[in-house]
């Protein structure tokens, strides 16, 4: 079966760095997405990786290793507004998105 | 209006009611999706429409009935729902890629549904 694993919840301190991991087992691979979802709001697109390596976008970076079936989202200089759920999703060989259950990130002052 | 909009934002209904959820996208995309989001579970894809044609129906019960009159509008008609159908219903849209693959999906704010 197809599976996406990510931690259920993480806690970090304002101003610090946090890494949210995602491992996947899917039938084929056509890219990996990270979305941010604040409580009661729409998921919003953060990043897309299809080749191995690190993609940097401001305070957020996303890393992919296809051989290991592994990705992480790195958030630097954490702000209170970064408190949200972070969803990992993989596009399989049929171009269908397989979603993880999300990681709830709690930022403390 | 920009992006993807959904109405209503909140809905409470009894098990014998009939209601409809509406989604509209202003992004010029050609694919639209209905997802169900329950607490601490992955997003569940319910239906996919591509150029107004339904291309996916992931074993969704018949009490959920989608309608896509044009590439900008998507409805989800609800009839005789069960309490376990209470969830956040999200609409999304994307532009199909040249190989038929679906590009980044953009989501609406969702309808929070409570079935009593």
Query: Total number of β-strand segments of chain A?
Result: 11
Structural class of chain B: mainly beta
Q: How would a crystallographer describe the biggest sheet of chain A?
A: 6 strands, mixed
Give the helix tally of chain B: 0
Task: Please tally the β strands of chain B and state the result.
Answer: 11
Q: What is the residue-averaged pLDDT of chain A?
A: 95
Q: Given the C-alpha coordinates, what overall shape of chain B results?
A: globular
Brief summary:
Chain A has 109 residues and is mostly beta strands. Chain A has no helices and 11 strands. Chain A is globular.
Please explain how this structure is put together.
The complex is a heterodimer of chains A (109) and B (116). Chain A is an all-beta fold. Chain A is built from no helices and 11 strands. In chain A, a hairpin with a 6-residue loop joins strand 4 (32-37) and strand 5 (44-49). By secondary structure, chain B is an all-beta fold. Helix content of chain B is 0%, strand content 55%. Chain B is built from no helices and 11 strands. In chain B, strand 7 and strand 8 (73-79) form a beta hairpin. The mean pLDDT of chain B is 89. The chains are: A mainly beta (109), B mainly beta (116). Chains A and B meet through strand 5, strand 9 and strand 10 of A and strand 10 of B.
Core attributes:
heterodimer; A: 109 residues; mainly beta; 6-stranded mixed sheet; B: mainly beta; 11 strands; 0% helix; globular
Helix and strand arrangement:
The complex is a heterodimer of chains A (109) and B (116).
Chain A: E1 3-5, E2 9-13, E3 18-25, E4 32-37, E5 44-49, E6 53-57, E7 60-65, E8 70-75, E9 84-91, E10 97-99, E11 103-108
Parallel strand pairs in A: 2-11
Antiparallel strand pairs in A: 1-3, 3-8, 4-5, 4-9, 6-7, 7-8, 9-10, 9-11
Chain B: E1 4-7, E2 10-13, E3 18-25, E4 31-37, E5 44-50, E6 53-57, E7 64-70, E8 73-79, E9 87-94, E10 106-107, E11 111-115
Parallel strand pairs in B: 2-11
Antiparallel strand pairs in B: 1-3, 3-8, 4-5, 4-9, 5-6, 7-8, 9-10, 9-11
């Amino acid at each position: 079966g197809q599976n996406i694993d990510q931690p259920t919840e993480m806690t970090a301190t304002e101003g610090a760095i946090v890494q949210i991991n995602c491992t996947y087992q899917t039938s084929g691979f056509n890219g990996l997405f990270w979305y941010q979802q604040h409580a009661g709001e729409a998921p919003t697109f953060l990043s897309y990786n299809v080749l191995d390596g690190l993609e940097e976008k401001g305070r957020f970076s996303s890393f992919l290793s296809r051989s290991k079936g592994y990705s992480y989202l790195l958030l630097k200089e954490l702000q209170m507004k970064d408190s949200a759920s972070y969803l990992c999703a993989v596009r399989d060989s049929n171009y269908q998105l397989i979603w993880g259950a999300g990681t709830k990130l709690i930022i403390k002052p | 209006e920009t992006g993807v909009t959904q109405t209503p934002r909140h809905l409470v209904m009894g098990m014998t009611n009939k209601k409809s959820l509406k989604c509209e996208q202003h992004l010029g995309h050609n694919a639209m999706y209905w997802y169900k989001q329950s607490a601490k579970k992955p997003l569940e894809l319910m239906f996919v429409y591509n150029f107004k044609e339904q291309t996916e129906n992931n074993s969704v019960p018949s009490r959920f009935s989608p309608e896509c009159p044009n590439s900008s509008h998507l409805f989800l008609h609800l009839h005789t729902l069960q309490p376990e159908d209470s969830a956040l219903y999200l609409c999304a849209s994307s532009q199909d890629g040249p190989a038929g693959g679906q590009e980044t999906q953009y989501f609406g704010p969702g309808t929070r549904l409570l079935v009593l």
